[in-house]
Amino acid sequence: MKANKKIVILGAGPSGLTLAHALLDAGCTLDDIVVLEKQPSAGGLCRSEMVDGAPLDIGGGHFLDLKRKEVLEFLFRFMPRDEWDLYDRVSKIRIRGLEIDHPLEANLWQLPNEVQVDYLESIAQAGCVRGEAMPESFAAWVKWKLGDVITREYMLPYNRKIWSMDPDLLGTYWLHKLPNVSFRETLLSCLEGKPMGALPAHGTFLYPKEFGYGEVWRRMGEALGDSLVTSCPVEYIDLTARTVNGRWQAQTIISTIPWALWPGFCDLPTEILTSIASLKNAAIDVDYHPETLSSSAHWVYEPDESIAYHRLLLRSNFVPGARGHWTETNAARSLPSDKIRFHNEYAYPINTLGKPEAVQEILAWGRNRGVVGLGRWGRWEHLNSDVAVAEALQMASVLCPVGVE
Questions:
Q1: Which residue from 313, 334, 378, 386 puts its CA 20 to 30 A from 366's CA?
Q2: Is the entire prediction scored with pTM above 0.85?
Q3: Paired residues of 313 in beta bridges
């Protein structure tokens, strides 16, 4: 017997959980919605587990940014503000045998004078300073924006590591996410010995006092009761009847899971299969190391391509009483290890050339069949969790007149 639902949500990560609760706020009942999650617990990439006596975020480092008031108010309903610690972000880059603050171009003043001059000369000759037109590929854009030296020593090796892809295949449409520091600001920071430019994402952030970041999402899942079905992978979708696994029939299906999985659920037209096949993602391995590193950083970027991992998370600096650290490595670069490892097949969407057009075609096709893409994988965009929550709250307000009667 099929259960008729107004909304069936695929995936219980931040986007799916937020949408479910926002729909309840808008007038849905628990009987109107169901959230299907293939893992035994909610949280998606933001899940945490206890490792060596302290929480570890198994999908990589996740922190709660303070910029969106509506997001904070929403999440504090499930995990009140007094259960979070506030931190001023300390992120470092390893470069030329030193650790300096991120972003590199805003903190060159921390390097020896002769090294500062190397970078400043390079930036002064960059295409953007000379008034050249902005290129369309990422690799060319980096050189145009930052010059040869930062491009060669940091940006290209780091991006080759994290994506395991030729940077020439990346687009430039996503670069608004990167810190934007002008040459003038870079020069002033070196002269005045202090950082310049806007703070990057998570300039200040919250992290739970007693739990990993996954705790707030676990509580959100628990609050859904039987409307959250865990250990329930999607196996079959009938697009004509809008049924999932032959059990749940929906007025609207919300997909927060990777589109790359959809060819295994149902028959898709050739043009949609082609668009889905063009989407690329990076798989990430999170490895725990019991050694506590001597650094004030919350996390450290490592561009050296002779080292497998691209980022270290020093949990002893943001998890009270914890020791050790974890590394994040593109799975294509991971070495065999007997350490505790968490593999995330779908960790980062990759911003390849042509991706926006492919995603737009997939989303338009879905909308015409009552399927709506949401979140990191529904939109195939690297959304921080606070942005995912904000967009899910907005979607609930759009769905409410249609999905709720």
A1: 386
A2: yes
A3: 299, 326
